[in-house]
Amino acid sequence: MDARMNVVGRFATGRRKVVMGIVLVLSVGLAGAIVDLPDPGITSTLTAISPDSASSQDGGDPGQSSAPTTDPETGSTTAAPSDPEDGTPTPADQDLTFAADETVNRTVLAQRVAADGTVTWERHVAATDEEAALLEADLAAREDVAEVVRDTAVHALGTTAVHPLGTTNDTYRSYQYGLDLLNVDRLPDSVATGSGAVVAILDSGVYAGHQDFASGTVLCAAGADYAGDSYSTGSTGCVDPHGHGTHVAGIVSAARNNALGVAGASSARILPVRVLDSGGSGTAYGVYQGIIWATNHGADVISMSLGGGYSSLYVDAINYAISQGVVVVAAAGNNRLDGNAPSYPGAVPGVVSVAATDDTSTSAWFSHSGSTNVISAPGVGILSLDNTQGSYIYMSGTSMATPFVSAILARYAEANPSETPEEVLATVKATALDLETPGFDNNTGYGMINTFRLLTGWSYGVPPPAPAGLTATGGASKVDLSWSAAPGATSYKVYRNGTLLATTTDLSHTDTAVTNETDYSYTVTAVGEWGESSPSAAATARPYSLIAPTVPTGVTATAGNATVWLTWTGAATRAYAPLTGYRVYRDGALLATVTEPAYTDSTAVNATGYTYTVSAYGTGGESTQSGQVTATPSTELAAATVPAGLAATAGDTAVTLVWVGVGSSEAAPLTGYKIYRDGTLLATTTSPSYTDTTVTNGTSYSYAVSAYGTAGETALSAAASATPAAPAATATLSATTVTANQMITLDVTGVQGGTAVTVTEAYTEMVPTQQQIARYELYRVAVWRIVWVPAKYGSKRVRQVYYVPKTTCKKRKGVRICATKQVRKTRTVKQSYVKSWKRIGRWTYETRARLVYDTVTVLVPTARTRTIGAYPAAADWTLTTTFSLADVAGTHTVTVSGIGLSRSFTVTQQ
Fold first, then answer.
1. What predicted TM-score, i.e. pTM, was given to this entire model?
2. 39 is catalytic
3. Which one of 58, 61, 95, 203 is the catalytic residue?
4. 451-467: per-residue pLDDT in tens?
5. What per-residue confidence (pLDDT) applies to 684?
């Protein structure tokens, strides 16, 4: 959290050492290489100060220590519960204070920007606070220095291990309530696992050799180490002398379903970037370097379970990561009872800042409360990996809540690779599961991260929506139902007149338990894992009884040579009188069944008279027989007359022919007509018309027609010629003016086959463009002068009094009643004072002017072109469409390619 926070039980023994100051240079732009250079002009005393307490406000597993706890005021000792879900934390058990990191506070960072844009950082460590101030002033006065900042301390925001579970191969999934609250194991199999995403863990390192990391999960070869301690030599981030980073990485990606240990919230790969030392502490500059490294080495999500005071270094690095499409997640802080100041980098705008909740989804007592909180996740008593083979530990803190969110966002990033970090942040807020105060609140931000809604698009814990589109169609002794799928539904219930009729997994159902000629009303509900939806809109239907088709009418019989041709008017097809076909009777006996209203009796004998009748039949039965018709086949027949009046009309890739039909009689029976094109038989037809669609536009064709029957074929008719051609294409563009743009209507007709049409719009838009403007800027130059400063410090011990809440619980008549009171505590701290003074030089300042360049934004006209629509080639087609021009003032030219149409419009702004 702030400069005083660390991890319980992970502190090294306090010691002092004197070293030469160094200059740490980051070059080659943001990707940069790191070079250590000696700076003989600065001699520094570096002091590492140990904490004065071995407990943590950052939490252990609150109230869950595996060792007895002692009340510092009364001296009474109470054994902690053995189960990690038992116990209620008290702030007194978790209080921790320690001194600020003096070395970090005396570190001055200076940024230089070369002419080619290369960014270089120098790190100067001063021996005293006074020298640090003088050094900071001197660097700020230099013209070649772009920015000067003091480095700040950063610390892990999770607690120490408090409930080790040993090294057995048993599964500990039942202890991971966080996965249950986030519904991770209830996600559909189709949801992304995150295996294609990379989460950069900026922490104390990752022990990649833990048995619960699947092979290849931790990307050691791509990792980095900016912790700057004795473990950093040759490290790629895959060393963790502290354990905090391994615990965080396990929450993200411990192997799932391996019958071993715990399960991670995703299958994302881990990029280990070590920025915290063996004591769980680091610097803002180290985190800055870690963010740049992770961004440039493939991270999709950067996860930081750490925090401290503000530094502009965080802003620069995080803005760079976001600009490169990387989602940045960080802990909100653990200092609600110790100042509640915003924790950085979590409080930097654009970061997904994560607060902690407990196993009841209530804000954790230690979790930072403030407007910088974005989202919440479980963070009290979280079981994950320790930094030794086969061991597992509990930790508490916003450090533990953060990797839950990072894992879920890794899965989201894998499924939505085109979303920007800004869009991801907006989606996280919009889909959050609201907690505590309705809407945004300082304790939990927008609420719990809603894994189900974020990754599936629908909310967990609610029934699916009612099915839409229910239709009911009455049939013969049945009603057919169908409806649309409802998201999240595993089955559907069908209700008839309010009573459950059936349950099905299909999107349709046929109700056969009906009474014909009766009206029924139906509704359908969707059933999901979390209940049944409300009923759909009702649909009604009326089943019916089937009847026989109607009697065929207009039966005719035409005699030929040993043949009789029968035709009739087909029976009407109705839902309750379905038609299967027709039955033909000759002299009272069934002769044939057909499906078309015509039949040729080729078994007739010449000079014999026959009587015919026809009936229609279907699933509803057979109709009565039609009236009788008679015919006598004979060999004494003549050919039909020659067709007359042939006319040929040209069209687009077609020629339509019509002629005067020829009558048919027993003496001159007619079978049909033969069409000839350019002297070659083209087709036969029974109608006095025909359309030739096998022609080519622009080619002339000659046609003739003959009639034929059982007595033979007639001569050809008079010829008729035609040349098919495509109609000319026409197109118009019309506009209706509105306040801010133009509504354009495009009408196209007669476009020929093989012509594709594309509609485009060209216009000029004023685009903001950055330019540099020169100006003079005043600055101060340091001037040396002699001043008196403290030469020697003393210290004295001062007794402080403070109060913390303490909760006491009792059972009365089986009911557990708890009360909280303020308990008075005392502690002894050291206070410094000046013993003697010394005379040293000091800088003063004078004002000068220098030429600087400001980047300003001006509007520059820029040509724009966009495609409004593209329409593929078809045979012959017409098009009518309406569209809006771009909402930009000025002249817009709409072009319709393929038919050469172009028109300009003027758009005015309101």
1. 0.46
2. no
3. 203
4. 988 998 876 666 677 89
5. 92
